[in-house]
Amino acid sequence: MRVVVDLNRCQAYAQCVYAAPRHFALHGREALVYDTAPDDADRAEIERAALACPVRAITACADDLAALDEAGR
Amino acid sequence: MSEAPGRVVIVGASLAGLSAAKALRTEGFSGSLVLAGDEPHLPYDRPPLSKQALRGLTSADTTLPQPADLDLEFRLGVPATGLDRAERTVILADGSRLAFDRCLVATGARARPWPNSAEAALDGVFTLRTRDDAERIAARLRDRPGRVVLVGGGFISFEVASVCREMDIPVTVLVRDSLPLAGAVGAPLGSFVAEVARGAGVDLRLDAAIARMQGDARGRLAGLVLEDGDRIETACLVVAIGAERNTAWLDGAGLATDRNGLRCDRFCRALGADGTPADGIFAAGDVAHWPNPHDGGALVAVEHWGNAVAQARTAARNMLAGDAAALVPHDHLPDFWSQQFGLTIKLVGLAAGSDAFAVVRGSMEERRFLAVFGKAGRTVASASVDSARWLPAYRAAILEGAPFPPLPGGVDAPARVAMQSLEEPTR
Q1: DSSP B246
Q2: Coiled coil: which residue ranges (chain B) (predicted)?
Q3: What is the pLDDT of residues B76-88, one digit of tens each?
């Protein structure tokens, strides 16, 4: 999958950290560190994190296009 | 430009370009959509590169999510070399020509190179802008260099210095000015960042400049000598002295370009050299030089994530607008964030040019506060350090130009506001 967080919006409510602890973490009080390329198998967890965000800062999509990038087009 | 466009070409395959492509489809555009970029990668996100990716916490593969049904044609790894306005064609370096009805210029900026090209070519001298840059620097950090030197007093320098300290790698930051970041966020916040960095063990040198770099016989960086004569031994130096806007490919196109980027109007329409909108050509993101409605229309060029997204969306809407009455202005209030030394610093509005500063919640001592910037008695910007939830409340005050200083004594606010005058940052 591909994940991006709008960190202008993020206010460190940390709901994503509870929903998907292996892919989102806070370093310090408000600095969100997140997995930009989680495994497709974790899709339900990532989508739960996106839904849990009270400020709608998380965008995630399946990874259909990544293989094309590997091919170096 | 009243006919509905059938072909849109976006030049620049980064955040602004991809955001525009998504917005065009969301707005109902069903014609052909080409996204051309000089790097071989699909559009990727840059902010994690100077933070978590550099430290190796996450991969430097920060490819941005994109919906599967975008129906985009990518032309990646080939830079654009020209734009023919009469023929409505973008020319790529491989000689191919992309015809368009609407073109979005989103070619962004590149890291400003170290001015001495022989020194810049030394092995161990880096800039940090692209995913490939981040991978190269991350690999070098994994080898645990004896000392990393950052040149430049901007946020990238302090973010990289923060990563080095977290990895327990000695680090020196060289700042030419007497304070870091003063131009962007004012002297009080610049002093705060300097103190935090020093507290984390950064060897911060102010009023410092490099006289020369020293290489070994194999062309590897070995050290540098400062103008005050001090020598610093290092095999890893990151040049972070700002960005240059990618407009050279537009030379000869008759567009209004200069070192600030491609000039556009408030509807994101690129202007021709004669100052009138160029038919069918728009601009968004770091390359755009635009009138900021929140500063009386003063021209601004920012390198902010949020602006790239917002401006791309406005440009996309206006590319599809049937006539001038349907154009929407780009009225985004600039905002950005930085993460360093475990702190999250956020700013909304434009602090540059402000004349006063006040901490209105929390305190610098506890490293958790919210501050407001004033200009001629109006509120023009607000900054938060680990207090992001307060920041949106001040966005409205900035938008309406509320009086400065704000009223003291509110809930969780100090009984009186200690205001500081800001001088023009020294250069």
Answers
A1: -
A2: none
A3: 999 999 999 999 9
